[in-house]
Amino acid sequence: MTLSPLAPASFPELATIDGVTLSTAASAMKYQGRDDMLLMRLDEGTEMAAVFTRSDTAAAPVEWCRQRVSGGIPARAVLVNAGNANAFTGTGGIAAVTACCSAVGEALGCNADAVMMASTGVIGEPLDTAMLLPHMPALAAGHTSWHAAAEAIRTTDTFAKGASATATIGDRTVQISGIAKGSGMIAPDMATMLGFIATDAALPHRVLTSLLTDATRRSFNAITVDSDTSTNDSVFLMATGKAGNPLPGSADDPGLAGFRAALDQVMQDLATQIVRDGEGATKFITIDVSGAADDATAHRIGLAVANSPLVKTAIAGEDANWGRIVMAVGKAGAAIEQSQLTISIGGVLIASGGARVEDYDEAPVAAHMKGANIAISLTVGAGGGTARVWTCDLTHGYISINADYRS
Amino acid sequence: MTLSPLAPASFPELATIDGVTLSTAASAMKYQGRDDMLLMRLDEGTEMAAVFTRSDTAAAPVEWCRQRVSGGIPARAVLVNAGNANAFTGTGGIAAVTACCSAVGEALGCNADAVMMASTGVIGEPLDTAMLLPHMPALAAGHTSWHAAAEAIRTTDTFAKGASATATIGDRTVQISGIAKGSGMIAPDMATMLGFIATDAALPHRVLTSLLTDATRRSFNAITVDSDTSTNDSVFLMATGKAGNPLPGSADDPGLAGFRAALDQVMQDLATQIVRDGEGATKFITIDVSGAADDATAHRIGLAVANSPLVKTAIAGEDANWGRIVMAVGKAGAAIEQSQLTISIGGVLIASGGARVEDYDEAPVAAHMKGANIAISLTVGAGGGTARVWTCDLTHGYISINADYRS
């Protein structure tokens, strides 16, 4: 797999999170010569929040985790496998998750219900647990880096994705580190693809859930590669509490302002790395929408533009075909008045008041289209709703990757 | 432009409709060496119904027609131009439509309000009426065939699209003939792209409108190429009354059963020809959904599958990757139970009861995927809702066509 031209120069330095231990293993289930299993071990007392796909055909591991995380049961481990999604696998799929989590629980000396699982890969193939179970004892004893962990969860990803930030809560400095995977079948609905973010902050389960839901809206739910929503989307946020900060009473606690900003930073960094690794991507596109009736409407308009194949192919061709943006805004069903629509690309005003500006000069826009970072800005009315979403272009690479991924 | 591999062998014989006269002209606005203007002249007494895009950024000609058709004003002509959509052109766009329709009215000796207009082409470019107006006198006097008319309205279409049928109302035989254009920016919402269907039947405006709306749901609104909805979608149904049949009192009149079937036949034929000419298409895909809570839900699930880039690229690659169908059904937001989901491709049962069938043999499905006509059948529950939708695959051809269409 050729490295995405939008890939970061290198994997970033990720802070170690006290209370989290990582280990990886190679099952050879689909990928040869590389690790494809990850175990995240969590010290006792770790709180966990998670968001999952809203798909009606959610995978077995999603169903397993959803039932356990929402109740606030303290988690002790997260097991991840790459290569088989264990989705649409019926009762056999649930049995496979149970077997895996029980084996991890046995190796760690904890209850299977305290073990979460996330899977990514082909849909509909039964998960062969015989290829995973023998590795549990080694996983329970191993120790590796965030970088190795991020490598082990890749599928069509061309680079490993990580991000880290620091914040202060009370008098304590807390660390946030996270990894993610995702490249295709990327369209946000609640969460998207796999993300694992850990912090040493002390945060009650209810606060943690609120922080995660809020940050997800501005990160993983604000990206799209191809409008297809995975059966396995899962984002986990784990707080080990080792930093010993004072416990906040709510997610709105003013003392959490720095933490919220740092969490946004990590999650938006990971989410935009997924876009930068979008299948076949050659352009990274940021779409800002303002003037909508509310934030949700602005978000909908932004995603309509971000998901339009005609907008994405035009950008792939470095064609300043802004008429397709007009089309995409129009189909969003957001009841906007076209006479109030303003469009800028690369900071150049192209259209205003429902028509192209009179002295429009395409030259600077055409120059902007040749770059790797495309900025589209839309004002759709006089309302206060705003949103920012990210996507990539649609290229021959996407077709090549997806016309023969499974075979 | 290479002819679509899914194109019909030839343009069909279309019955002449008494009361409808066609003529074409070449404006050289965008296309050289071919006609790109069409005028359909309608005898006095012709009733017209029409459906239009629901886009918030509907084009100027759509706004012009919508205001006039809904009131039941008898139409005397329809003017079509290919190469410029006159969309997002502000007050100048409305002025351009007014100028064109006035010029036609003057040439024909009728009111401008009795002249409809439909445009297709690039969005956002002002329409240069100086290139169109000189042709009005010749258009008002000319006479050509349905085939020439269908050729004149093409843009990225690789073949001209026509269909014809006959029905009986009372003791009279009536004819239906229609043409359409469309290839990209095809996703139905109320109507899709341009369609012009004429009949010599006598049908009151209210009945005509009801017949058109109903038939559109099962034809132009049941197709998708790329999920993008045009600013200019318009379908017109014209009834000249020359057949002299008894006037039906309502669209449900049992005496209209044959006419309804014939109208369905013509409109579904035209709609599926648009799919067969989908940009880059190499496979024609029919998706049948049954067992949904209602028809609208079945339709939504069908379109979720039909619009999924991952399903469409898998079919392009002749890969029986049915797990992507599971994914697409899941993201439809139709609240289905995956344990009730049944999937067949090419008549072969693949999945049932929420998992792959035990003795699944991929060989016959793989063989079916190599053909040009792909049949997907889904049962999503025990409800009575059904739908059939049509789409094409997503290929390198789509990317090539759309990454440099405007330039």
Write the layout of secondary structure elements.
Two copies of one chain form a homodimer.
Chain A: E1 20-25, E2 37-42, E3 47-52, H1 60-69, E4 77-84, H2 90-108, E5 115-122, H3 136-141, H4 146-152, E6 161-169, E7 172-181, E8 194-199, H5 205-217, E9 223-224, E10 234-239, H6 257-276, E11 284-292, H7 295-307, H8 309-316, H9 323-331, E12 342-345, E13 348-352, E14 355-356, H10 362-369, E15 373-379, E16 385-392, H11 396-403
Parallel strand pairs in A: 4-5, 8-10, 9-16, 11-15
Antiparallel strand pairs in A: 1-2, 2-4, 3-10, 6-7, 7-8, 11-16, 12-13, 12-15, 13-14
Helix pairs in contact in A: 1-2, 5-6, 7-9
Using brief descriptors, characterize the structure shown.
five-stranded mixed β-sheet, about 25% strand, alpha+beta, globular, about 400 residues, homodimer
Describe the fold and architecture.
The structure is a homodimer of 407-residue chains. Helix content of chain A is 30%, strand content 25%. The first copy, chain A, has 407 residues and is of the alpha+beta class. The first copy, chain A, has a 7-stranded mixed sheet, sandwiched between helices. In chain A, helix 2 links the parallel strand 4 (77-84) and strand 5 (115-122). Chain A is globular. Chains A and B meet through helix 2, helix 8, helix 9, strand 14 and helix 11 of A and helix 2, helix 8, helix 9, strand 14 and helix 11 of B.
